[in-house]
Design a protein that fits this description.
399 residues; alpha+beta; Butyryl-Coa Dehydrogenase, subunit A, domain 1; Butyryl-CoA Dehydrogenase, subunit A, domain 2; Butyryl-CoA Dehydrogenase, subunit A, domain 3; 3 domains; 7-stranded mixed β-sheet; FAD; Acyl-CoA_Oxase/DH_mid-dom; flavoprotein; glutaryl-CoA dehydrogenase activity
């Protein structure tokens, strides 16, 4: 039998990432293989995931908020966090979403924009997985234009009273705390309502978090709403350092960075599974990997996987460098990598024939999940317009 090499061996992954970072990724992969891999297909079919149980294990592993400093967080580099996301999404996008929402949205909002009291109350427990968070920005009628949100917060004496609804909120039905963004009565220098963030314990009277059912994508993830009916919060619930959309958008950039790396894991897993299947599936007295059309599909997928892995590594290096990374660069990574990984998984599914539509094999599950990843944290089209504006200097967004 001909000698084979894994995609990462051909790519030379050990020259793309540091040895220590790859060793860390190996630790994450081993834990996931031992605790999650064999169960994920069933969770996907059942439309659920044991979020609390997994959060405690992932907290013990050290991946929750691992790229944040202090308060029980790991203080890891951006690249190390990205490689963890890559291993998580190699299992399932829903699992990576759980970790992204916890660490890059809820915990990052607290860490970057919160008061010292808010940080000390929530971050250590969230890092350990003993408290789950969610992030309320998207609304039933407001997605790509967060400035159009209807959720509002009004002062009543020393308190704030929140009313409104958020939609498509990962972790909401099982969360202990929600970071909710709302318009206030104040206005900025252009006369627009000021958006502020609020730390909302989900057991606060007036808060409901019903679960969204009947999803056909990202099924191994718990998705819900946040319904706010005259929710009264003390003044201390407001994130003191966040004023305007800069607050929530900074959190979204953190989550998008995790996606840039994460989707490379889905593509790698689909390619690895396709290589294994085509090498063992016999038709016409030979493995189907021996046919030219199979090798063409495999080689194309490997080329695309290599490209998005190298782009992720480059952006990780930028984020870890003194110069940092720009929102446009993150948009580039999210736009290219999510779309390319989706196409890789779609194309490879065909190599499995009828077996490819079952939960026994991962490419179609990854492809279905990546339809959601292509849409959330800024749709594919929004990132195209973001880069179009950077390239041309012309804003094509509606004013």
């Amino acid at each position: 039998m001909a000698q084979t090499q894994t995609p990462d061996e051909i790519l030379g992954i050990d020259s793309v990432f540091d040895k220590e970072d790859l060793e860390w990724a190996g630790i994450v992969r081993k834990w996931l293989d031992e605790n999650v891999r064999e169960k994920i297909g069933d969770w996907f079919l059942e439309g659920t995931i044991p979020a609390r149980e997994l959060a405690e294990g992932l907290g013990e592993l050290g991946v929750l908020g691992m790229h944040l400093d202090g308060y029980g967080c790991g203080g890891a580099t951006a690249t190390q966090y990205g490689l963890a996301c890559r291993e998580l999404e190699a299992i399932d996008s829903g699992l990576r979403s759980l970790v992204s929402v916890q660490g890059s949205l809820a915990m990052f909002a607290l860490h970057h924009w919160g008061s010292e009291e808010q940080k000390e109350e929530w971050l250590p427990r969230m890092a350990q997985g003993r408290a789950l968070g969610c992030f309320g920005l998207t609304e039933p009628d407001v997605g790509s234009d967060p400035a159009g949100m209807r959720t509002h917060a009004k002062r009543d004496g020393d308190d704030w009273v929140l009313n409104g609804a958020k939609m498509w909120i990962t972790n909401a039905p099982v969360a202990d705390v929600a970071i909710v963004w709302a318009k206030t009565e104040g206005t900025d220098e252009r006369g627009r309502p000021v958006v502020r963030g609020f730390v909302v314990p989900t057991d606060t009277p007036g808060v409901e978090t019903p679960e969204v059912h009947r999803k056909i994508s990202l099924r191994a993830s718990i998705t819900g709403e946040i319904v706010l009916d005259n929710v009264r919060l003390p003044a201390s619930a407001m994130l003191p350092k966040a004023e305007g959309l800069k607050g929530p958008l900074s959190c979204l950039n953190e989550a998008r960075f995790g996606i840039v790396f994460g989707v490379t894991g889905a593509a790698r897993d689909a390619l690895t599974e396709a290589l294994r299947y085509t090498g063992s599936r016999i038709q016409f007295d030979r493995p189907i990997s021996s046919f030219q059309i199979s090798q063409q599909k495999l080689a194309k997928a490997f080329g695309q996987y290599s490209q998005i892995t190298l782009l992720a590594a480059h952006l990780g290096g930028l984020k870890d460098s003194p110069q940092g990374i720009s929102p446009q660069q993150i948009s580039l990574g999210k736009m290219v990598n999510a779309d390319t990984a989706l196409n890789v998984c779609r194309d490879l599914r065909a190599l499995f024939g009828g077996s490819g539509i079952t939960s026994e094999y991962s490419p179609l599950r990854h492809a279905v999940n990546l339809e959601t990843v292509l849409t959330y944290e800024g749709t594919h089209e929004v990132h195209q317009l973001t880069l179009g504006r950077a390239l041309t200097g012309i804003n094509a967004f509606a004013n």
